[in-house]
Amino acid sequence: MPTRTVHVGSVAIGGGNPVSVQTMTKTDTRDVDGTVAQIREISAAGCDIVRLAVPDGEAADALEKIVPQSPIPVIADIHFDYQLALKAVRNGVHGLRINPGNIGSSDRVRQVAEACNDAGIPIRIGVNAGSLEKELLEKYGPTPEAMVESAAGHIRYLEKLNFTAIKVSLKASDVARTVSACRLFAGRFDYPQHIGITEAGTEHTGLVKSHIGIGALLLDGIGDTIRVSLTADPVREVLAGREILRALGMLPSVPKFISCPTCGRIDFNIRKYAPLIEQEVEKLGGTITIAIMGCAVNGPGEAREADVALCGARGYAGIYRKGQLIAKTGEENLVEAFMNVVKEVLKEESQDLIAGDADKDGKRI
Ligand code: SF4
Questions:
Q1: What structural domains and CATH numbers belong to the chain?
Q2: Residue 220: how many other CB atoms lie within 10 Å
Q3: How far apart are CA 344 and CA 292, in angstroms?
Q4: Nearest to 69 by CA among 42, 33, 119, 41
Q5: What is the average pLDDT score of the chain?
Q6: Which of 258, 260, 292, 314 best tests ligand 1's pocket when mutated (most atoms within 8 Å of CB)?
Q7: Which of 80, 97, 128, 274 could potentially form a cystine with 259 if both were Cys, beta carbons 3.0 to 4.6 Å apart?
Q8: For the purposes of burial, counting CB atoms within 10 Å of the CB of 182, is it exposed (0-12), middle (13-18) or buried (19 or more)?
């Protein structure tokens, strides 16, 4: 079911908009300079939205100075305290993460919903398998059904107030439960989903869990914004999120990179050159497919699919454009020779785009 669209500042979430990447700062939010510096780092790494923990009044006050300095929209993460939520909204945040069922009387929920409505900002309901309501735990146990029921309960609070700028996350620290809960939710509701595996682990183990969980959901068409959670620097989380989107072909205008694992048939030392070429191509950006292959077994086949390919042969490597061998190179100047062809292709493509010329292939070779 297609999801509705909500806006977090300039970022549209859901409704078929590009999947955005978000993370949380790990600084003390009361430290304005440190937090702004970290937001700039994660923004430079490609983060679209940042969330800040707001545990007390001083942190909520700091938002007044942080939000105007942030290059990306800011979400305040608040537990229980509706006064903090109101203060965060007054201080200009672009979204709240708060569970309405946890903030007390219906009057408090109404005040928060009204403040968000007036400010034009959404609320994310964040259900975590580790903190489900007692009655749901008794009825279902810590299951996907309980998680979805918990979300449904929080949604009802807001819908009663005609507040529908809602995003939802359903997270558990294990992949299977998270994926099941998100699938179940997507079958019942059309609110956009923020997806991720919570408390996934350290960079090593957490990455595998996040790649599997987030990847499986995105392949199902579920997930409108993603967060990779790692016991690591938030920049690592952002880069990991972007890698997931890249692997699924969801990042526009980035190079696609194919390289073989190498084996006993390798004819040319591509292991040395593949990372060097990848680095150089990354710097240029653009929509281009590069293949680096070790020998003639799969090399020419991949080379046909790629815009530019390097294929190992006895004592030299062949450079191909769209499957046609255009040069042979030894190790000396290999990267430079390859990159010159890449630049040529990118230049021609941008000229084709400008000229609106549909017949690109005819001009290339
Ligand atoms: Fe081995 Fe050649 Fe395949 Fe690379 S392309 S994995 S070197 S067989």
A1: 6-247 (3.20.20.20), 256-357 (3.30.413.10)
A2: 12
A3: 18
A4: 33
A5: 93
A6: 260
A7: 274
A8: buried
CA 272 to chain centre: 30
* Tens digits of residue pLDDT in 108-127: 999 999 999 999 999 999 99
- Which residues face 310 on adjacent strands? 292, 319
> What tens digit of pLDDT does each residue of 34-66 get?
999 999 999 999 999 999 999 999 999 999 999
3-state secondary structure 106-144: HHHHHHHHHHHHHHCCCEEEEEEHHHCCHHHHHHHCCCH
The pTM is what?
A: 0.87
User: To 10 degrees, the CA torsion angle through 2, 149, 78, 67?
Assistant: 0
Query: How far does the chain reach from its first CA to its final CA, in angstroms?
Result: 44
CA of 27 to the centre of ligand 1 (A): 46
Strand order in the sheet with 225-226: 166-171, 123-128, 95-97, 74-77, 49-53, 20-24, 225-226, 194-195
**Which residues have C-beta within 8 Å of that of residue 270, sequence separation ≥ 6?**
259, 260, 262, 292, 293, 294, 310, 312, 317
- Which two tokens mark 17? 């908009």
Listed residue (73, 77, 66, 60) closest to 21, CA to CA: 73
Q: What is the pLDDT of residue 356?
A: 64
